[in-house]
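Input record (one chain):
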Amino acid sequence: KQGAEYGMRTEDLDALDRIAKRTGTKYRFDTTAAENGSYYNGTITINPNSPDPIKRILGHEFAHFTETSDQYEGLKRDVLESPYITELLGEDINTVRQKIQRTYQADFNTKLKNNPALALEALTDQEVFAQAMGNLMNAPDALLYVAKKRPAFIQKAIDFLHRIGDALTGKSDYEKFVREVETRFRDALYK
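The corresponding structure, as predicted from the sequence alone:
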């Protein structure tokens, strides 16, 4: 099984396979990948040496889920302009923007060449937003803020998390984690 050569536990690899099948995600492992991993051209590259690659994938999939929301643009604006953006990113938004532009330069250049109407700032903010949304599950104040501004989105997120939890049934640690996140979202929605 892919990942076993890096000493990853069978339980982790099974959970990753279930998430990939449920979400249609492709993934690969690379010890030279940035910090925890990266996303390029439809494939998530996971650094098997990161502290918890499976939770990283869950956060990433959640971030991509937001892109399918009919509220995406408004949600993105609300999150990027929120008083909690530094908490969600772990540092100043402009610092994160610069890092993202360096990390994704090749991918951005291809996208800009293929679609000149795109702006570098817009591509950068898509990735900044994805990072912020991947961390939303661990930021209660920011989650409450989003729930108050976008309750319909939070309900859709709860449904998404429930489906992922169902895919992980029997994988105790990860199913438990997803169910806990689902509960946090539900609590924020009904506070």
